[in-house]
Design a protein that fits this description.
Helix content is about 35%, strand content about 20%. With about 700 residues, the chain is α/β, with parallel strands linked by helices. Helix 4 packs antiparallel against helix 5, helix 8 runs parallel beside helix 9 and helix 14 packs parallel to helix 15.
Length: about 700
Amino acid sequence: MAERRRRDTRGTKADRFAVLRRRRTHQSAQFEALERRQRTQASRLHAARERIATRAPLGTHTIETRRAQYVELAPPAPSLTPPRAALASLAAAFILPLVIALATGIVGTHNTLTAKLEARHRALRMASMTRTLENKPSTLARPVAARQAGSRPATAIVQTIPPVSPQRAIAPHARPANAVIAAATKSASNARPHAPASNMTRKAAAPVIASNAARPSAASQPAVTAQAPARPHAVAAAQRVALAQAPGPVPRPKTPWRLSADGTWAATVHAPKNMAGAQFDTSTGQLIALERSPVDGEAATVTIGWSRPVSVDMSADGQSHSIDLPAPDDSLDAFAATASAVGPHLVNVGWTPLAAGSAVVDYKVYRTSAGSDPQMVASLAAAKHSWSDTNVSAGVSYSYDVVADTSSGAVEANTQSIVPPDELPVVPASAIAGKGMFLYFSSIPGDPRYFGRYHPEAVVAEAKHAGIHAIELRMARGSCAMAQTEGARAWLDRLIDAAAHADINLVAWTVPRRVTTQDLAETLAAAAYRTPAGNGFVGVALDLESGDRYMGDGPKAVAAMVRYIRMVRAAAGPHYLIVATVASPEMGNHTNADYPYARIAAYADVLQPMEYWHYFDQSSHHEYARREVAGASAGAVARTRALAGRDIPVNVAGQSVALEGTDSPSGREIEWSLGGAKSAGGIGETFFDWAGTGPDAWAAIQAFDW
């Protein structure tokens, strides 16, 4: 019964906090007026106590005499004569401007002077009030609710904050100077809630102390709580930013690192402009060379999962250059959180990987959506620094608070508001059926695939003439978009609009490199791309390959491929068209043991094996026969479907150009490949790629009926 009463008491306090928070939100003016009134009364009481303390003690007879005098004397009548200071103020505010106006006859000047004098008068009054309050500190009781629902007693932080003079400024990240921990019984329930801090600002919470007996063990806590009952977000409501004693905001050292929604630090390093084709190497962490940009040149991204200094070396044509990156701040003072909407149905939340000395017990994630109270949505071990929220809806605003419980207290960080993008269109797999072509473009002048070499209307006209039903347009490589300039984006819009006018479907082709929020978000951004006219893509094609320029090597690459397409599916929703471009089983007799066909097929709508027959037999350079080419395409369809473990549509990625020293297929080979894919039950064949396809290949594609 005692435990039930305690739980009821906590529930009552929680309801009280919720009511106070709502009142504070909707009746902010009344609350501010009450605060001013309380400060005025406190200052008067303090002044009275000082006057009494400085006077000499009175004898008993003196007290009695004074009491008799006070009883006998009648209260003085109020004076009807205004004080001299008030008359002077009235004269300065009204009479003097009127005299000036009458003397000059300019009404506009009178109004301007009057406004200036009134503003000066108000400023003097405010300065006087500030000087009066400067020597009278105020005490604010700040409630801090238990971080774990129904398990930790409520506590309160009582902090003495001196008033701020006009020369003093607010320090956004200053921690309380005089924090005193007290039991939150009556004071916690009467304290005024505070609105959440601004975007990505860590709330400077003093340590929240709870007895070890009240905190449950880590083993008893659930790993992830998908949906918890709504609870008042007293943590966000109670935290205040401390006021700095020194003038000006507290400076923070500049850092090259940025906190990612994966719970890691990332920094982008650039090679000198004269180091074309620079090679990057790092002393630690993960390094990904970025696509060469017409704006930023050669660059790479360094990612680390815990704080340590990093050295990056660059070299090209006998030149070398080094950059030293300092270790990022992983102290409690630097605790922060960030969130990123990957797609309509996925938001990733990451927070600072705190130092081991912080003794983190666990992390709790609270989600606030539009019009609802905060809810605890996850409880994670101390080793976790990120969380993926798949229970979100397109177009709804969300924000997150992350609470780090440590052995000595708790700190909290809140994210910016996140709005997942609109729903993606639902298109069947038949949208890419028949004949197709890959188109790979670049934003760099001088590149063989520079977008300026492709006239949008001419490209669409040639595709229409050859009977092309779908074009897979390369939109991103890793976290780098292909359309990097305004000119490239204008060209892209023209191409998309022309294809839509000709009833040719476009698929956003991306090349994943790592399972990071930035990489995933670039893929979903390509899928959601729309021109000003409202035209876009019918689906996304993920080029899932192993190797250093792709998803890496070995078992980690295999796991990364599966995780990547799983995250894309979660972000895009269950019905969006996803094409998985996979290794052909005919190349080296692949099985599910060395390439995850079945696990990829669980999230894909179409499998697209890369059957580049010249590339695989490049050492022979012989003239291919019908049975070789048709057999390769038919085998790719049949074996891919069998390895998928289900009846999934298969679209062959065929070869129409010379690849890395191999010869280009002849027109007859193109025809045989199309025939083999169609006879085996494939839904179509898409050829790589537009730039190198010759007239003979185009004629064979046009002649084949599909």
